[in-house]
Amino acid sequence: FSINSSELELNEELGRGNYGTVKKVIHKPTNVPMAMKEIRLELDQSRLNAIIMELEILHKASEKSEYIVEFHGAFFSESCVYYCMEYMDAGSLDKLVNYELGEVVQIVPGVNDEALTWKGVPEEVLARVATSVVKGLKFLKDELEVIHRDVKPTNVLINKKGQVKLCDFGVSGQLEKSLAKTSIGCQSYMAPERIRSESEGQAPSTYTVSSDVWSVGLSLIEIAIGRYPFPPEVYTNALAQLQAIVSDDPPELPDRYSEVARHWVARCLVKSPADRAGYAELLEHEFVKADESREVDMASWVSEALSFRDAKMRVRTVSKSMSAPPTA
Ligand code: ADP
């Protein structure tokens, strides 16, 4: 648990979240790569101690589940909390599958020597993601009495071995309390009952596991179709988007997936929380049972998805530099 900044070698930025940046670092004494999240906070010592204590519990617990990103340690420096966790070398699912089915990256000399087609997320892979996420959430609930509250594809991480793990769960109530309240983002994964109770100004303590189940369903559809399932805010506005979540029929998994898969997702996206599936039902469902009974070559799928993502990124860079105005 004792990590300090002098032991870390800073590498590239992995992403940016609501509260700060995430960078790749190498823990020099052990040569272990880690993801370090910087969270800006103005805190007094007693608050800091409380946070450290909670993070220590998390540290011990996170070693017990293969569906939770391991927590390596945290330290404070100049009014920032630095939170070090397991580095997931294929990143978050939002960035890995954010493509339209059939999208092609053409050959670009010196970049990719064959055209690549995005083949989407096969059912077996989707089922493995779903199973891992629900098992992770159930672990948090049963072992740590924690409700995630922020399930979305950005918080589902994957590595080249094909392991799927959750991150960013509100284990540290103290840390959460110290964070400024997130403004409603342009893509909401909030369940309809959450949107209603927030708009009525109810206490957030009414949050239950069931609201996370809704977010699981919505995230799975996003992972399957490569985009946020509700009309994007550019066509509407934040309020209209929230209104759609509350009033419209819930989105569905496309029919290229099996009835079993579609049923599982539909059970997550039942609008009334009382009728929505719980973790027990989801884990007993044929969708999960089938996943548990088969081998899935997740590593090959991740490798293919990374090739597509990298080719697409390099093509973008190439075309950007080609369209740059000539320098005089
Ligand atoms: P948010 O606040 O939106 O949930 P985060 O701050 O948690 O986002 O993370 C921002 C980005 O950093 C993620 O989208 C992901 O791509 C990357 N990232 C976060 N944690 C890790 C990790 N442990 N390993 C690899 N990449 C990570």
Automatic annotation (TrEMBL):
Family assignment from sequence similarity: Belongs to the protein kinase superfamily. STE Ser/Thr protein kinase family. MAP kinase kinase subfamily.
EC number: 2.7.12.2
Gene Ontology MF term list: ATP binding; MAP kinase kinase activity; protein serine/threonine kinase activity
Binding site for ATP: 37
Keywords: ATP-binding, Kinase, Nucleotide-binding, Phosphoprotein, Serine/threonine-protein kinase, Transferase
Gene Ontology biological process terms from the UniProt entry: cellular hyperosmotic response; p38MAPK cascade
Residue ranges of every copy of the Protein kinase domain listed in the record: 8-288
GO cellular component: cytoplasm; protein-containing complex
Protein name in the entry: mitogen-activated protein kinase kinase
